[in-house]
Every structure is written in C-alpha cells, then in structure tokens.
C-alpha cells in the first residue's frame, strides 16, 4: 500500500504525496484557479494536472529532485543552477498573464506593517530590522512587468542532472518584477547567484536582487511564525537578514 507523505501543511493549505500523485488541498479556489491557468500558459515544464475536485487539485509528480532547500547546501551542479536561470528568463520573456500582481506601493505598505510588527513584538533586534529595511527600499522602484512565478524558491524547481524537469507551486504567479523571481530563487544560496545570472543571459542589477532578499525576508517572518515554521533556522530568513549586515 502506498504511504501518504505530508509535503507541507499549515492553516491555509496542505500538500500530500501518494506515490506519483500530489494532492493540493486549498479552500481558496481563486488561488487554485491562478495555479491551474499559470501552468497552462507557462512556457516552461510544469506538472500535469490529473484532476480537480475542489478543494483538491491532483498533480503528477515531476521527475528528478528539487534544486535545493532553504537552509541546506545545494548539491545541484552550477549547470543546473544556470539552467534554472535560463528557465526564469524564458518565463519572463513570455506574454503577460491576464491578472496583475502587487505594486511597489502595496509592497511598501506591507513592509511598513511587518517591520513595525517585528520591532513592537521584539521578534528581531531593531537595528537588524531598520538596516535591512533601508536595503529593502532599493527593490521598491518602478519595474517593467513580466510573467513571474512569484514563489520561485529552490524547492519548487526540479532538475535531473543539469536539466530542468519542471517548476511547481504556481499559485503566486502574476505580473511582477523579474528580479524578484531571481531573488527568491537564490535566497539563502547567494553562492549560486552568478550561475543563475549567467543562465539568465542578460545584465541584472545585483543590488536590487539583494534588496529583494531583505524585503522578502522581512515580510515573511510573521507569516512563517504564525504558520508553524521557524525563520530563525540555520540558513533561513533571519540568517539572510543578518548576512545583509
């Protein structure tokens, strides 16, 4: 009998694996609508949709293994990281999805609120928050919108050798900043940034990528804490913030 593996579970949604099938359970059907449509129009490999019966979406497992995990060294080759950069570029060159993403003003408001929460509740030292906030403001500038994955973390990119076999978890896909995707892909894996940029194939502003590392980490801490994750684990968000100093 196949065992049920809990891939991730929290108050908002859960993902289970049974053999070669992933079952995503999400009561927010608008989020699932985005995921299904984004996978259908993305120009890079994505999981096959096997069936959908709300609140469950069944997806076929991708071959290969994840490019890495936040907080753990990646064993993937430099060529695999470059391939991930090339896949991101192909996505960013595709036609825009029909729905918008968050604007710089919306992100600035979120940054204000999260920094205030972190300081008021003594979650992180004030100096760590304020210095990273100054860095994060570098990401809040006008950008040409592209088709972004929205959560292109290393655990969502699957590789077999040096080849990308697919990208999962498209529920945050939208029009957005290309450099945000590159920042999420390299968050906690700064040593692979040059490989990703080489595969991406164009000049990028590394300071903006670093600004996105700070911004994303600052606004993620509260959500992670409230959903049972530990952002202070080695190599994770709090360490990313400390590394910016």
TrEMBL record:
The keyword Nucleotide-binding does not apply. Residues 20-202 form the Aminoglycoside phosphotransferase domain. InterPro entries: AGP_Transferase, Aminoglycoside_PTrfase, Kinase-like_dom_sf. Pfam families: APH. Keywords: Transferase. GO terms for molecular function: transferase activity. The keyword Plastid does not apply. This is Phosphotransferase.
């Amino acid at each position: 009998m196949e065992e049920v593996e809990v891939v991730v579970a929290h108050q908002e949604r859960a993902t289970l694996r049974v053999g070669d099938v992933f079952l995503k359970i999400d009561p927010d059907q608008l989020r699932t609508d985005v995921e299904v449509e984004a996978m259908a129009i993305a120009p890079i490999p994505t999981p096959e949709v096997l069936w959908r019966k709300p609140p469950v979406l069944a997806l076929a497992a991708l071959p290969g293994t994840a490019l890495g995990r936040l907080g753990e060294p990646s064993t993937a080759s430099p060529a695999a990281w470059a391939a991930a950069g090339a896949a991101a570029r192909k996505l960013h060159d595709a036609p825009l999805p029909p729905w918008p993403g968050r604007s710089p003003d919306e992100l600035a408001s979120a940054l204000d609120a999260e920094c205030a929460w972190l300081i008021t509740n003594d979650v992180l030292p004030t100096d760590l928050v304020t210095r990273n906030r100054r860095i994060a403001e570098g990401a809040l500038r006008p950008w040409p919108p592209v088709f972004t994955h929205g959560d292109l973390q290393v655990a969502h990119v699957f590789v077999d050798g040096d080849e990308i076999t697919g990208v999962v978890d498209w529920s945050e896909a939208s029009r957005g900043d290309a450099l945000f995707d590159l920042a999420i892909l390299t968050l906690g894996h700064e040593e692979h940034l040059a490989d990703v940029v080489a595969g991406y194939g164009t000049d990028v502003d590394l300071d903006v990528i670093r600004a996105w590392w700070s911004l994303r980490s600052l606004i993620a801490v509260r959500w992670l804490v409230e959903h049972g994750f530990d952002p202070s684990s080695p190599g994770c968000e709090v360490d990313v913030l400390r590394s910016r100093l």
